[in-house]
Amino acid sequence: MNPRVRFAPSPTGPLHIGGVRTALYNYLFAKKNNGTLLLRIEDTDQTRFVPGAEQYIIEAFQWLGITFDEGVGIGGEYGPYRQSERKALYKPYAEQLVNDGWAYYAFDTPEMLDAKRKEAESQKKTFQYDVNTRMQMCNSLTLSAEEVQERLGRGDAFVVRFKYPENTDIHVHDLIRGEVVINSGLLDDKVLYKSDGMPTYHLANIVDDHLMKITHVIRGEEWLPSAPLHVMLYKAFGWEAPQFAHLPLLLKPDGNGKLSKRDGDRLGFPVFPLQWKDPKSGDISSGYRESGYLPEAVINMLALLGWNPGNDQEIMSMETLIDCFSIDKISKSGAKFSLDKAKWFNHEYIQQKSGEELAPYMLPILEKNNVECNNSYLQNVIELVKDRLNFVNDFWDQAGYFFVAPDAYDPQAVKKRWKEGMGATLQEVMKIIESFEPFDQQKAHDAVMQYIADNELNMGQVLNSLRLAIVGAARGPELFTMINVIGVKEVRNRLDKAIKTIEG
Ligand code: GLU
User: How far is the CA of 235 from the centre of ligand 1 (A)?
Assistant: First the structure.
C-alpha cells in the first residue's frame, strides 16, 4: 500500500523551522515511497488563531519547494482539509465514544475546577482530572442519567473527556524510539470535545487521520506525550492506528534545550522560513528568505538536522535526499542547530548556481540601491564575486563598486600603496590599457607587466593603486578581469577621479 502522510500545522503564527523540518521529512518519505503528502490546517482552537498564518505557511512551502499532493489550497477527495470547515463531522464521533463507555460528559465549571486545584495545592499536590479523581467530579459518571440528560437538554456547558481504563499499560510503537510504554493511571482524562461544538486537537486529529487514510504520523517529539491517548483513541474507535515516528527536537546551538524564536534573535539567525510581521504587535521576526538564504540550502541543512544518509555526504539536492531518505536513519537524540553550518551550506549552494540563476535574487538588491543595469553585466559581476558570498544579501557589500564608482578611498591603503608620483605612473599604465581596442585582457595584462618591469616599478604598489582607484579599497577579484567587466572607459573615469581626489 502506498503511504499517506500529512503535515498538520495549526495556524497560530509563523511556521518554526522545526515545523518545516517535520514537513520536509514527511515530504521525503512520501516521495521516496510513492506516497501522498497532504496539508491539513488544524484550526479548531479559535483562541489561538492568527490571521495570515495559513497564507504564510503556504507561501513558505512554495518558496522551499515542498509540494503537497492534497490539502488546503489544492483540494483532494478527502477534503475539506481545514478542520474548522469539518466542524460538524466530529460530534457524532464524540458521542460514539460516550455511548461506548470510552468517554464521558463533564459539567465541572471553571470555579469548581479551580477549587479542586487550590485544594490539591494546599496539600502540595497537583490536581489532575483522571482515573483517581473523576469520581469526585461533576460528570456523567457521577450524576444520574436523568440529570445528565436534563443538563444536556437545557444547554449547560460541558466537555467530553476521554476515560482511560484503570491500570492499563499503553504501548506506543514508535519507528524512531522503539516501544514506549506508559500506564493509564498516570494520564489525565483529556478533553476531546466542547459544548461550543468544537473538537479539541486530539479528537479532530485522530478522526481526520483516520478519514484521510493516513498510514504514518511523522511529527515532532513534543507530541510524544499525546501518543498514548491517540493510540487509545484508535482502540476505542476500533480503527487501525497509523505508524508513529516522533522526530528529535531541534536544539539551541549550545545544545541546552529546544531552539526558540528568542534564540534566533539573540544569536543572529532566523528561526522562521520567511519574515513574519506579527499582526498584533507589528513586531518583525527575520526569515531565511529575507536574510539571503537559498531555499535549497535551507532544505539541505534542515534535512541533516536529525537525519543522515549513513555516510558523510553533506551536499544533497532534493532528489538525492528523496533517494536516500529512510526513517530508520533518523536519530533519537536532539539535533543542534549551527549557524556556521547554515552559512556553509548557503555558501556552497551559491557556488553551485550560475550568474544567470542568481541574478533574480540580486535584482531587488540593485533596486534598493537605485541601480539599473543590464542583465548580462549583472551576471558577469555575480560570477566574479560569488565565491565571496555567504548570503545573497552580501552581494552589495562585495560588489557595489561594480555599479557605483567609489567616492572615497581607504586611507590606510592609500598611505601604503599610493606613493609620490603614482598618478603619473597610472596615467601611463592606463594609456597602455586603452591601447588595446577592443580590450584584450591577457594582452593588456602582459603589456602592463612589461611596462612595470622595464621601468623597475614596484608591481604591488602600481597594481594595488589602480585597484584602489577602481574599487575604493584594497579588495576585489583579479585586476584585469575586473577591468574587463567594468570596461576601460569606466576605469578611465574612475582613475581620473581618484587622482584628482587623492593628489588634489
Ligand atoms: N496541529 C498539530 C501541530 O500544530 C499537529 C500535530 C500532529 O502532527 O499530530 O503541530
Answer: 20
